[in-house]
Amino acid sequence: MAADAAVIWDVDGTLVDTAELHFQAWVALAAELGKPFTRADFAATFGWRNPEIIPKLFGVAPGAPAVAELGDRKELLYRAAAQAGVALLPGVRPLLDTLRQAGFKQAIGSSAPRANLELILQLTKTADYFGAVIAMEDTRKGKPDPEVFLLAATRLGAAPTRCLVFEDAPVGVQAARAGGMRCVGVTFVGHHPAEALRRAGADLVVPSLAEVTVAQVQQLLG
User: Fold this and answer.
1) Same-domain pairing of 113 and 212
2) Cα Rg, the chain, nearest whole Å
């Protein structure tokens, strides 16, 4: 039954945990601008795209050239720190393997810039698992809009109703459900409590992807 089904992975907080690297990059950028950046700012915008975060937090007009320039600067800081090494979260590689063996198509659906995603896939040696990688540059709207996941489904040739998304943020869960997809919420990195993921519409919430089996994925997809 997996031949027509797909799994779409969010990256930060689901595939890997580089949240602290992102936070420190934002802090460094804010310091260069003489602006504050707090843990609360980070939590409130986690899962958003830079074109939404920068106007919200730094008062730059949406669409202004400075938005892209500041976003590029922040991501350079992030990638420099990530070069030191990034590890997959518990259970991820075995799940990638068993899903592939069961015939599931797999894709990345992320709010992150493509260069970040390519670096993460390179460092974790996981690029071969994914038939499509949808990044910030591919979308016009960020989560909770379903665009990123719908585009991933299209690239894989899978109907949205035959797709399941792995997410760790409520906006990502909302995006999956808005796209007509099933969703598993993961609380391992601890940014959002299980109840917040359930309220957002997660079909299943787990503390770690080590607890997810192919049989559960097949069951969720009916």
Assistant:
1) yes
2) 17
Residues 101 and 207 in one domain: yes
What are the b/e assignments for 45-67, b being 16+ CB within 10 Å? bbbbbbbbbbbebbebeeeeeeb
Residue 52 backbone dihedrals phi, psi, to 5 degrees: -95, -35
Tokens 């590689």 correspond to 93
Same domain as 75, residue 13 = no
Pairwise CA distance, residues 18 & 87, whole Å? 9
Segment 41-87, tens digit of pLDDT: 998 898 899 999 999 999 999 999 999 999 999 999 999 999 988 99
- Whole-angstrom distance, CA of residue 119 vs CA of residue 191: 23
Whether residue 116 contacts residue 55, with contact meaning beta carbons closer than 8 Å, is answered with no
Under the banding of pLDDT at 50, 70 and 90, the label for residue 93 is very high
Provide the residue type at 137 as one letter: E
- The phi and psi torsions of 193 (rounded to 5 degrees) equal -70, 160
Which residues, 6+ apart, have CB-to-CB distance to 72 below 8 Å?
Answer: none
Domain of 181 in residue numbering reads as: 2-17+87-220
- Residue 54 sits in a domain of what CATH number? 1.10.150
d(CA 173, CA 114): 21
Report how far residue 32's alpha carbon sits from residue 204's, in angstroms, rounded to the nearest whole number.
Answer: 41
Distance of CA 107 to the CA centre of its chain: 11
